[in-house]
Fold:
Amino acid sequence: MLVERILQSARERLALINHDAPVTQAAELMSKPHTDLVVVCGREGEMVGVLTKTDIVAQIRQCTGCGCAAQVEAIMTRNVISCTPDVRLKEVWASMVRHGLQRIPVVDAGRKPLGILYARDALQSLLGEVEYEEALLRDYVMCVGYR
Structure:
């Protein structure tokens, strides 16, 4: 199964911000439900990094005075592990496990963001695929035929 099969749900969770936006704008985006990762985009709309709630909390903790004027690009994670829609979901899941990630950006060939893949969605899809294969095998062994 390829990532593109579950791209629709990944698109629904996509939150974008410009690299030169203030951290407070990113914090506002993350205050929305189910927004735990924000993709940071460069001038051409390509992904240049990501922000997590942990990044924002660490920055706000360092702020003094009445406001925090830091820009997103100052605190974002630049070396981002991502995937494209044409990658096998099993490979993406293995990468997520290896790096301890719960979310991963899905990008096109030009690194333009398409969505955010959650580990839960990947697991549900992989489980569904295994259950279907199990049912086919059971039917074959029981001489029922194929579905």
Summary: The radius of gyration is 19 Å. Strands lie at 16-18, 37-41, 47-52, 103-107, 113-118. Residues 3-141 form a domain with the CBS-domain fold (CATH 3.10.580.10). The chain has one domain: 3-141.
